[in-house]
Amino acid sequence: RVVSPLNHPNIVQIFEIGEEVGVYFIAMEYIRGHNLREFRKRLFRHHPDVKPYNLCAGILSQVAAGLHYAHTAVDDNGLPLHIVHRDISPTNLLLSYNGVVKVVDFGVAKAESQQHQTSAGTIKGKYRYMSPEQIRGQSIDQRSDVFSLGICLYEASTNVGLFGRRQEAEVIDAVRNARVTEPSKIRADYPALLEEIVMKALALDPDDRFQNADEMRAALEAFMHEDGLYYGTSQISELIQFVFSSEQAQNMTGANMMPLSPTDFVRFLGEIPAGFP
């Protein structure tokens, strides 16, 4: 319900929220494509020498545009909703075959309009993609999503997990202190301007980051223009179709997906709802 009023090309569209025979459902647009995690793995596996810097800038600039729209959304009375996604991660960023990048899964998003606010100190999201203030259970705003966006950009462009650790406690410690190795120490050819963008997004103090997602989007756009290689929707589309050429033919539509079976309902609800065909 938080995201259902939003209408932006870089945010998954919610069509309907309802209930049928005791089962609640959300109907949303079907996106043909793959998430950023799958794309990164496939790209580097088959093209280990790729220099994905401008591509990553193009992908994440679209994400930033969608996030800024959500962050600045207002209600019917013109009052800010103050939406914060809280779970920006590669699996929640979908790259469609037409080159449009979609932010999905606002399941743990918070908004000013929510009747039941999250209790202070409650942590929601994936630890390794949280901001330092989020993992501490402190108050967060749109700059927390900017930090998470910086993690996604770092990992997509270096092919190295930023806060991946063997133990959960080590992940939490690394995030709390924003321990970040400069990308240029991982990849010698890493562009200096892109590194500046990454490190600014990943600043420990929110006041030292981009103050909103649109600032980060503008910086990524400027990097691509300065470097002379721009990745818009058409360029991203061509690359995604090339990388996933074998899967694309099998992923034509969501209409032929098998519906939930009675067994599924038993697993979810413990019984088959009355009125289920």
Low-confidence stretches: 113-121
SSE order: EEEHHEEHHHHHHHH
Mean pLDDT across every amino acid position:
87
* Global Rg: 20 Å
Distance between the termini: 28 Å
- Strand percentage lies at 5-15%
Structural commentary:
The chain has 277 residues and is mainly alpha-helical. It contains 10 helices and 5 strands. The protein has helices at 36-46, 53-71, 132-135, 142-158, 168-176, 192-201, 213-227, 233-243, 245-248, 262-269; strands at 14-20, 23-28, 33-35, 93-96, 101-103. α4 packs antiparallel against α6 and α6 (192-201) packs antiparallel against α7.
Give a quick summary of the entry.
The chain has 277 residues and is mainly α. It contains ten helices and five strands; from the N terminus they run βββααββαααααααα.
List keywords for this structure.
277 residues; mainly alpha; three-stranded antiparallel beta sheet; two-stranded antiparallel sheet; 5 strands; 39% helix; 8% strand
Please give the structural blueprint.
Blueprint: E1 14-20, E2 23-28, E3 33-35, H1 36-46, H2 53-71, E4 93-96, E5 101-103, H3 132-135, H4 142-158, H5 168-176, H6 192-201, H7 213-227, H8 233-243, H9 245-248, H10 262-269
Antiparallel strand pairs: 1-2, 3-4, 4-5
